[in-house]
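Human:
I keep going back and forth on a fold encoding question. Comparing notes only helps if you start from a blank page. Show me how you would write down a chain together with its backbone fold. Write it directly below this note and I will take it from there.

Assistant:
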Amino acid sequence: KKEIETKIKIDDIDAIRNKIISLNGIFANKEKECDEHFDFSDSRLEKEHKVLRIRNKKIITFKQGNEKSNGKKIADEAEFMITDYDAFTLFIFNLGMRPSYYKEKIRETFKLQDCSVTIDILPFGTYLEIEGDEQNINTVAQQLGFETSTFIDLSYPKLHKQYCLDNNLVYTKDIRFNDKK
């Protein structure tokens, strides 16, 4: 499927949550997500704008593409469930892949006007992510009080790297809530 999404930096989680609910947003769930990215030692997937991710040791996502449009990131995405994390990671290790990035976040998910709207709390900031078709993303963002000029078309790993550069921190490809940096 084609994934179209944007991110918006937010400061007041309660205000955004209340606005989503006031617009008849439907709460789906809240959970801690742990994302493990895998790549070859030559970073070939990253260079080819591809991502292989395991979320919470059970959801495999493969994304490819680096298209950007009006503050939105567009990629082809395939997802499937696994029942045996150890067997799957052994399989990709035998293909020559190794862990390349690890990220934790708290994600609160809502459905609003054919979009998935999430509040993502990461150790380096809080973001609103809106996923859907381009027009619905624009409509939902506007209803939530955001202009397209606030849209961010970067991935969380790239936002994390930028955060480290902006704050004179050592960039590591491992971000966890217990990390004091």
Remarks:
- The radius of gyration is 17 Å.
- Residues 40 and 96 are 6 Å apart (CA to CA).
